[in-house]
């Protein structure tokens, strides 16, 4: 709207502001949170309890995460009994149970016809109240009916809101609402029916219009108070008092417009919590308990709330599930009571609703590090939720397949009731599109920052990319784990939250950043003499030998050793013992089942094949180093990179691969806006920059043909790298054409 408005002004065009504002108001109403819900959420936030809306429009919220979560809708909680709500909606059943519990209630009966209503009223021989059996918010209620005509009119009014009608003794006195939450009285209010005060000049209709102009009054439950309706029921109330809507009452005379005092029908409230005697408090709590409600609004009528109820002939006239709390949060008079806090205390107890959350980001290694941490937590006996580029996993079972490193995937884990510990791979794209799914994590891990995805989404430099990755570092409340060998990671120290511990990891035990950090009493992890060491400034302890980690491939996969260092640091920060960390890392296997497309190694008739998702210069350099160290034979690469990378990035991929592979086959995976073969040509250009025109460089656009060409260049004892594939099945299908036996063997390994 703002853009359209400025554009119209710039061109001297007309602009219908009112229509567009109405559109905004409609949107606001559609997405607005109810006042009672908002009060409970505010109390949750004050306690540091995270919350999330279940859908973007529903008034249903989740408080807390994973196995610590609770649900909330207005003042109905996930702990509210369905049976108790059904009981409370049946007023006659409620009265019977309360009477059984020794709680005073008015005598009466349930009827379905006007004649039956008249009979019950005659039997009671007193003014009666007529109301729907299963009504709420004061709908259809008429009090103080003394004549057959009044009973008849009240019955017809009640029938608009329910088939079965209660006729009961009218209890003389004031109308009070007592809120019970978590087994104790949280607040009490004296409720006054909707009314206006005469000024000797204005008609009643004018007085109502003026009162409805009060900014505190809104439609329904959208504001502190509700607008007063001058409807048929209001006119009936006026007739009883000898007035009409166009009557002019004398100055100072109060004119009542409703027989009930509900805020939802325009009533007001005055706080009287401190006036309640202990006997009344105990009686209210017993009433809620008898019905079975964790949150209840107990309606009482008596002459004076400060006097014990039984002594004055007062009675409980209703018990409400999902009571509104506006009157307590924003009384028209008296002290405001934080009813939302009382509900939160009853629902959450001392819990803040949080489970440990570890967020992992970086350019390379995120998925493997995330899986290492998740595997270790699972081995330690925790219900573990994990998000990666391969999917969403809970306790090792995949729930969702695909690239799940953004906001909605993280929500899937945080809303899973069987998750005690969450590990969330958090990618650049997800941060830029929607941000984080959590307000803060316990541990944030930033593995590295190297050129990738530059030129996309307004991220043009590596410094820009570091700013995005730093969002994870900033979100860590307990500890942030950073790569001491990456200057951009080191610079994120100043972005850490106050009080958050900084833990460094390094492949180099003599890294000056790491050494200074340890000297200052900080903690870190590093590799020394082929062992992973955990240090806290006062002592260094060998955690395990590198070769004891299957993912290290006997120490050759140095990038996985670095990932393990980061994982160990994150687990240490999360409170895991050294034994638990060692157990996890020594049993984590990075294969096609647990970690597809991350250094998956296969044997194809004596040729060692490595399938990996490498797709940027840093990843290709690390992968080629590992592959070169495996065997003394020839190293063949089948490589590509997405076409949405900058020309310079694609050329650099070619330079890295041309320098490190003996034979290089370049294929096209995702052109992403480039002409077919455009990315391939740039990668080959980079390779030629290093080796010159050579018959060791091969151009093959189609991936299946590129795979078969690469295999044809190999002899037993050689190593073949197939990189940037979107699926292991792509390799298997290409292999099946010439070697169905090997394809079947690999397929069986991945099943």
Query: Which percent band covers the strand fraction?
Result: 15-25%
Largest sheet properties? 11 strands, mixed
What overall form do the CA principal axes indicate? elongated
- CATH topology of the largest domain, which one? UDP-N-acetylmuramoyl-L-alanine:D-glutamate ligase
Q: What name goes with the CATH superfamily of the largest domain?
A: Mur-like, catalytic domain
What count of helical segments does DSSP give? 26
Mean pLDDT: 92
CATH architecture of the largest domain: 3-Layer(aba) Sandwich
Based on DSSP secondary structure assignment, what is the total number of beta strands?
Answer: 34
Give your account of this protein's structure.
This protein is an alpha/beta fold. The chain folds into five domains: 2-79, no CATH class; 107-170, 2-Layer Sandwich (Dna Ligase, domain 1); 194-257, no CATH class; 357-587, Mur-like, catalytic domain (UDP-N-acetylmuramoyl-L-alanine:D-glutamate ligase), CATH 3.40.1190; 600-750, Alpha-Beta Complex (Protein-Tyrosine Phosphatase, Chain A). Helix content is 37%, strand content 22%. The chain has 26 helices and 34 strands. The strands form seven sheets. It has an eleven-stranded mixed beta sheet, with helices on both faces. Strands 29-30-34-31-32-33 form a six-stranded mixed beta sheet, with helices on both faces. A five-stranded antiparallel beta sheet has the order 15-10-9-16-17. Strand 3 (70-73) and strand 4 form a beta hairpin. Helix 13 (366-379) crosses helix 19, helix 19 (558-573) packs antiparallel against helix 20 (578-587) and helix 24 (703-712) packs across helix 25 (728-738). The longest helix is centred in the C-terminal third of the chain and has 16 residues, at 558-573. The two termini are 53 Å apart. The model has no long low-confidence stretch (mean pLDDT 92).
